[in-house]
Target: Amidohydrolase
Amino acid sequence: MKKAAIVLALASTLMTPVAQAAAPKAMKTAAASAVDAQAKQIQVMVDQVFSYAEPGFQEVKTSEYLTAILERNGFTVTRGVAGIPTAFTATWGSGGPLIALGSDIDDVLGVSQIPGIPNIKPLLEGAPGHGEGHNAGMPLVIAAAIAVKQVMEKNKIPGRLMLWPGVAEELLATKAYYVRDGLFKDVDACIFTHVSSDFSTGYGEMGSNGMVSVEYSFHGKTAHAGGMPWEGRSALDGVELMDVAWNFRREHLPLTQRSHSVITNGGGQPNVVPDTASVWYYFRERTFKSIRDLYNVGNEIADAAAKATGTTVTRQILGYAAPNFGNKPLAEAAYANIVAVGMPKWTADDQAFAKAVQETNKRKVEPLRDKVAELSTPESRKPSMGGGSDDIGDIMWTVPTITIRFPSNIPNMIGHNVTSAIAMATPIAHKGAVAGAKALAMTVLDLMTTPKLVADAKAYFKDVQLKTDSYDPVITASDKPAIWLNAKTMKLLRPEMEKFYYDPAKYPTYLDQLGIKYPTLTPQ
Model:
């Protein structure tokens, strides 16, 4: 009884909103003004990264471009961190807390899209594109960091910044390696940003699934498929039997699981029994234990399929993501700044374009939002039945971390889809990134000037979050980042994609370069 009362009292205290210590208003005003002064540069960065359109592990131009900007602004850049060529850290400052700031930079295969028109039309057929809107995140972070640096220098505030990119997030393939290799060892707090159609943040168990990405490769024996098939052992049979067995097993798995696969190698030609074949699975679940259990079920089924087909099977982990868990003190501080900044001032042209995109693509019609979302809490969220994943979770289970979602896209678009790319090089994306940069800069200043906020964030991480679960990734010391992924695709497509790179020296915006008048309201 006594123990239960203590737990209840602690829970009540944690649920009670508290006033957050904050940086002086004058400093925040100065930071917001410093972001406004970069509005043109933010537009250029957002458009430039959109035009590069590079998928996971191939963000070569994107990484070169962003690191050059950071170096010009006084940051020390370390490239190729965690054994990943396109990954980097950019650091500045001394003394005080070390605050990490990050966002993703990769895009999605096969969703090339001309921005600023309401209909689906690729820039280059079959090419990748920013159908998740990752082109806006690091420009936002860079602008915020530059603004914070200016305020800190003027006011002689001790503290350090570390900027980092989410490489290959669509493959969920790098942040666990960042953590494993110690990139966040000395970090006091981390703020991540992600594109959205709302302006929000939250804390607690966020309702997303964690995930393990694994490729199973079956090995058999070739033979003439018509003349003497009995001499062969088909690796493709192993792949297909695994897929069939997994689909039967789904009925007996928890409702929260999500699992999906693609055959990455189905053999050569029909008249040769294939001696190698591969299938790539994502196994998603809600907790560290259930992720590991689901992965083990997959391994058992793969082994059984190999035995049944007279083949052998090996497996290789290609990525991992931990479940997401946001830090309450950080979220409350960030939310106060989100409210202070407010939504961008959308014009009639912005609203007209959003409506045209929704109607053309048969999406629910909803105006660009004019109010920030409510703070997302464990009490306000509906119970989760599973869903998508984001490997920011690995950092969330390493240091106090939150995600700020910023309003650079149109409501009711489809994720990982061309509809989510349509607005991402338009004034909607640019304005949302400016708003997000202001809220991020203000929150960083809160952390730099109020030691209590850093201490509270660490206490919540230790005394609340780590009491619910502990970090238990599936990757091991011998696993390596899958940096070869998408290399063949980009070797083939990059020469044609280069023709569409944005040239800000010649054109004010990417839409100007493409000859698109904003807002274009009819299909082109």
The two ends are 69 Å apart (CA to CA).
